[in-house]
Amino acid sequence: MTLPAFHYKMRADGELHPGFPKCVEVNTAMQSGQVRGQYPSIFNDVIGPVMRGPSSSHCAAAVRIGRLARDLMGGEIEHVLVEFHPSGSLATTHDSHGSDMGLFGGLLGWEAPDDRLTESARAIREAGINVDIKITDYDAQHPSTYRLTLENGMERCEMTAISTGGGMIEVLQIDGFPLSILGDYHETLIYLDSGGEQLVQGLARSVDADHVLLRQGGGRQMVQIKAQAFVPEGVLAEVLSGHDVWCIKRLAPVLPVLSRKEIQVPFITCHEMLAYNAPRGLELWELAVHYESARGNVPPEEVIEKMAKQCATSARILVPRSWIGKRVRAVRLDP
Fold first, then answer.
1. Dist. CA 25–CA 37, nearest whole Å
2. Does 102 lie in the same domain as 63?
3. Claim to verify: residue 71 and residue 33 sit in the same structural domain
4. Going by C-beta distance under 8 Å and a sequence separation of 6 or more, which residues neighbour residue 77?
């Protein structure tokens, strides 16, 4: 299947195209100096995440936050302090709505559809990870805020993240550095005392990355690299030579569809979709394939394959085991 050229894209200055609907900007706020928005993805924003309930914003988001926290610690975690604000949405629901279950699974490296997720509390104890959950009055700017303090025998890291709805998340702070991580890039975080401006310039010239950003916090600096893949270690070592770097962290993406610079999509609004389809006569599902193929920069066949896998996973999670292999009669209920 060959798709035609697309006509909508991000503006050169990183702002959203003037025709971009305002309602989509809710989940696209990012820090100064990086792309301020991405077009929605069907797999990320519409029909995802495939997960165990009861709440995508409390469970699936917690899994993704936990996975990023695990990467921050290089997979070596001995103790985690989880703090929820007393006035937030998680203080009284973190257990019943599945936030604990999801967070524990993410800290173990699991994903939202994992069959083992319901046993994550037992599994995290067996893994030797001690978790303390406290309700603490701190400066939380969002009702679904997770403040994590992670430790092992070698280091201690802090992360503040929020659940923004529908399983989407944003990391707002790591180790005192304000930043933005949505889980849609391979993130490399380089900690150093000084010389960040020169390092940003060197990295921008030498590595294949969408964004190289300088962060400031606590008198120190962090360089954040957002890319489609992690920068090869050899290339990174060469660029970092001569710089006073004391730590490097790598956080893998947690969303099904990654973001990238200069995304182009065939349409944004219903009116534009109808105009796009006028000479083509496509079914609605085919239009969805066209859009998601462009948004994810993948072949249409890959979109269809991903949808088939997602449907199979949803059926495995949602259909009661007692129904498997049996005929189920559908009943019509008239008003």
1. 7
2. yes
3. no
4. 69, 70, 107, 129, 150, 151, 152
Domain that holds residue 90: 49-174
Q: How far apart are CA 226 and CA 260, in angstroms?
A: 9
Looking at mean pLDDT, say which of 69-78, 203-212, 231-240 comes out highest: 69-78
CATH number at residue 233: 3.30.70.260
Asked if residue 290 and residue 193 are part of one domain, the reply reads no
SS3 letters for 36-51?
A: CCCCCCHHHHHCCCCC
Confirm if 96 and 59 have CB atoms less than 8 A apart.
Answer: no
Alpha helices in the chain (DSSP H): 61-72, 99-107, 120-126, 196-206, 233-240, 270-277, 284-296, 300-318
Tokens of 285: 């599902």
Residues in the chain: 335
Q: How many domains does the chain have?
A: 3
Q: Who contacts 192 (Cβ-Cβ below 8 Å, separation ≥6)?
A: 199, 220, 221, 222, 223, 243, 244, 245, 246
Question: Residues 239-290: pLDDT tens digits?
Answer: 998 888 999 999 999 999 999 988 889 999 999 999 999 999 999 999 999 9
User: Higher-confidence residue: 209 or 262?
Assistant: 209
Of 327 and 241, the structure prediction assigns the larger pLDDT to 241
Task: Quick: pLDDT tens for 61-81.
Answer: 999 999 999 999 999 999 999
